[in-house]
Amino acid sequence: MLRATVCSVQERDEEQEDEGEEELRDGGVPFYVNRGGLPVDEETWERMWRHVARIHPNGEALGKEVRRATDLPKIPIPSVPTYQPTTTIPQRLEAIQKYIRELQYNHTGTQFFEIKKSRPLTALMDIAKEMTREALPIKCLEAVILGIYLTNSMPGVERFPLSFQSQFSGNHFHHIVLGVHSGGRFGALGISRREDLMFKPLEFRTLMDLVQEYEGSYRGYWHTLRKVRIGQYVSHDPHSVEQIEWKHSILDVDKLTKEELRKELERHTRDMRLKIGKPAPPSPTKDRRNSMGSPLRGPSSPIRRISRVERRPSGEKKVLEQKSSADMNGYQIRV
Which spans does this entry mark as compositional bias, Low complexity (predicted)? Predict the structure, then answer.
């Protein structure tokens, strides 16, 4: 019974990570997500202040002081970056990072924008537009979505999720940035409370060099990097109904030698390059999207669910199942 309980807890935790719940701890401290949209409803607003009172050293005194103040300074709203045709890719990425930094890191204990990783790209881009309108502080996962939105108009820049799991004093910590690749060099966009755990300029020759740069930053804070999760390149089509592939490769850094890690990262880089040559499925037009429904499913047809087994852990290759001719004949037309 004990083994079954432990396994069920592990499976539940992995399911939560699939739905994006891995980000619900900030430095080991749980935080809330505003699921009611904006403006923030009264219940969420009061819950946020109660949470601040619990986690801040000054407790309720700080909350009362801020809420009663009548002369709080007006916070400037940053402007979304614009570019001249001659602006280089590195300069554009630096401008995007400057904008993300100006929004500031969210220390309130309540994430203002709900990010569900299972949502299609077009829905996540709508949330990114709202971020630019509201100009509220953000956390690392929100910064990734915003980075994708702000680089959609840069076809020469490929983007991919890059997340880390580190360990310190027996606790695990999660962080995510947006990896970028252009002109044969890698870099990253993002936000963090730590200066060297977010932006990385477009100057790393390989993905291994970029990961090692982050690993060195973690060591500077006495954190041990345990896992690296890397997704596939994200479509530049803001209306795409595709889902972001967040975890194409899951690498156990502490179980791989340096050479094994390098080979795994080289293999992932090749996988990402292969995806560039594959055309994405076209997004449905507005009229078709309104009238398009799911095809009828027979009583014996199982509902297909994307399994965690389909992800490739470190050291393993994906194996493509050969379909029988009978199966192929039944699916000549894809809906």
Answer: 293-304
The mean pLDDT of the chain is 81
154: tokens are 């840069």
Q: State yes or no: cis peptide before 39, omega within 30 of 0.
A: yes
- Three-state DSSP at 188 gives strand
**Which residues, in sequence order, are bridge partners of residue 180?**
159, 187
168 touches 135 (CB < 8 A): no
Catalytic position from the list 51, 163, 166, 175: 175
Mean pLDDT across the stretch 97-105? 97
13: amino acid identity, one letter: D
**Which candidate in 51, 140, 174, 314 is catalytic?**
140
- Size of the chain in residues: 335
At 75 the pLDDT is: 85
pTM, 2 dp:
0.77
Please name the helix (run of DSSP H) or strand (run of DSSP E) that holds residue 140, with its range, or none.
helix 140-151
What φ, ψ does residue 177 adopt, rounded to 5°?
-135, 170
Active site residue 7: no
Dihedral through CA 134, CA 109, CA 164, CA 4, nearest 10?
-130
Residue 185 buriedness (CB in 10 A; 0-12 / 13-18 / 19+): middle
In tens, the pLDDT along 265-322 reads 999 999 998 877 565 555 555 544 444 444 444 444 444 444 444 455 555 444 444 4
Active site residue 236: no
Indicate the pLDDT class of residue 73, thresholds 50, 70 and 90. Answer: confident
3-state SS assignment for residue 230: strand
Half-sphere exposure of 315 (CA within 13 A, CB side): 9
Q: What is the pLDDT of residues 1-27, one digit of tens each?
A: 333 333 333 333 443 444 433 345 555
Residue 75 corresponds to which amino acid? Answer: I
Q: Choose, from 172, 192, 236, 239, the residue flagged as catalytic.
A: 192
Mean pLDDT along residues 196-225: 96
Tokens 């894809």 label which residue?
334
The helix (H) or strand (E) run that includes residue 333 is none
